[in-house]
Amino acid sequence: MVTWGGIADDFTGATDLAGNWVARGLRTVVTLGVPDAADLAGITDADAVVIALKSRTAPVREAVRESLDALAALRALGCTRYYQKYCSTFDSTPAGNIGPVTDALLAALDTDRAVVVPAFPDAGRTVYQGHLFVGDRLLSDSSMRHHPLTPMTRSDLPGLLGPQTSHGVAVVPLPVVRAGAAALGAELDRIAAETDTPVLLVVDAVENADLAVIARATAHHPLVTGGSGLALGLPATGEPAHAAMPVEDGHRVILAGSASTATRAQIAHARAAGVPARKLDLAALRADPDAEVDAIVAEVTAAWAAAPRTPFLVYAVGSQDDIQRETAPDQTPAGELVEAALADCARRLADAGARQFIVAGGETSGSVVRALDVRRLEIGPALAPGVSWARATTADGLPFNLALKSGNFGATDIFTDGWQALD
Ligand SMILES: Nc1ncnc2c1ncn2[C@@H]1O[C@H](COP(=O)(O)OP(=O)(O)OP(=O)(O)O)[C@@H](O)[C@H]1O
Ligand SMILES: O=C(O)[C@@H](O)C(=O)CO
């Protein structure tokens, strides 16, 4: 019976949440986009279903509509609890899309509160006094300050969320969490009873033990919101529930559209280790995208011919200077060019025999996975906190091994050593 329904605002985030549910013993399926009736009928024996949307940077109305469609699909599956998954670095703008989606889900579920828990200590995300930290830095002092789509220039969650929601936002500090689930639950009740309108409750958490307390205190809440960390706070229902993941025989490719610091370090490491690589040429893409993709495919297939088991890395950003933030009004933004090119590369390289993909970046993963026409993922072993191998099948039944890596997740050697589970 499906209990949990996840609504994730990007594809890497969806596999991140799914991986953590799997780690707690929940059999979890990820659908890419809102599932139709046929997709729903194919979901059997799952405890949790995550619907991956590409709504993080979509227009607000679209993000809300898609999230409500996802909620309706999850309700149709019989879910009784819902998890709005957004980025552990709270990627959003003053317009949204975190707050508007939470408001809409609260209204649709007719509930008066939702906790806000971006903390994911295993990945270095902690919340203290309502402020979000990335490692030892405030969010606004981290590399997220320079994100090409959602630059995060402040760290206080009420300040970030306030402009995005029509509801009140309260902070529940760490000592209340450390007082245990009963005390935390009583405090959440007290705050919720103070107003007639729903309230968003930012709860501090710096360790997994704090997440376990929050999970217990919210066990009766229809809706929780956060990064994936809160899923790790659930009581384990058994051994990790990884899907069997047959290794698909074929070539390996890494597609990195992410501009994040961790991805850049992973690219530098892979290049230093001799992984054949090609950086997208933005000027060439602007001039003639098909010709640039033709040239990439020719280079990758030649490299595979020489070394069939060696992955090839196609990437967008080697250093901060590569990021083009401004474009003339009549020009396609660089990010769109990159996503379209990597999506095209994915399709063409799959036709040429690629069966094992690591894709870096949430937006990038959305574009790539759509181009591959993958409808659902079954989650396999983890490569890093928040990153798992998955078995993917296209609408035509073509199977892949796919790992969708969030921009700032994964150790430096993930592009060289992340393949071990497939060896
Ligand atoms: N040179 C560039 N100039 C501007 N934008 C770029 C450039 N290269 C890539 N991009 C865009 O930057 C965006 C990066 O977002 P993406 O979500 O893929 O990665 P990320 O933010 O690092 O990952 P995550 O969302 O998982 O944290 C994509 O839309 C990508 O196309
Ligand atoms: O929560 C995270 O940090 C990731 O799953 C993510 O959403 C990055 O795109």
Automatic annotation (TrEMBL):
Q: Which residues form the Four-carbon acid sugar kinase N-terminal domain?
A: 6-233
Q: Give the EC number(s) under which this enzyme is classified.
A: 2.7.1.217
Carries keyword ATP-binding?
A: yes
* Domain Four-carbon acid sugar kinase nucleotide binding residue range list: 253-415
Q: Which UniProt keywords apply?
A: ATP-binding, Carbohydrate metabolism, Kinase, Nucleotide-binding, Transferase
Pfam assignment, any one: SBD_N
Which reactions are catalysed by this chain?
Answer: 3-dehydro-L-erythronate + ATP = 3-dehydro-4-O-phospho-L-erythronate + ADP + H(+); 3-dehydro-D-erythronate + ATP = 3-dehydro-4-O-phospho-D-erythronate + ADP + H(+)
The family assignment reads:
Belongs to the four-carbon acid sugar kinase family.
Function in brief:
Catalyzes the ATP-dependent phosphorylation of 3-oxo-tetronate to 3-oxo-tetronate 4-phosphate.
Protein name (record)? 3-oxo-tetronate kinase
Q: Which organism is it from?
A: Streptomyces chisholmiae
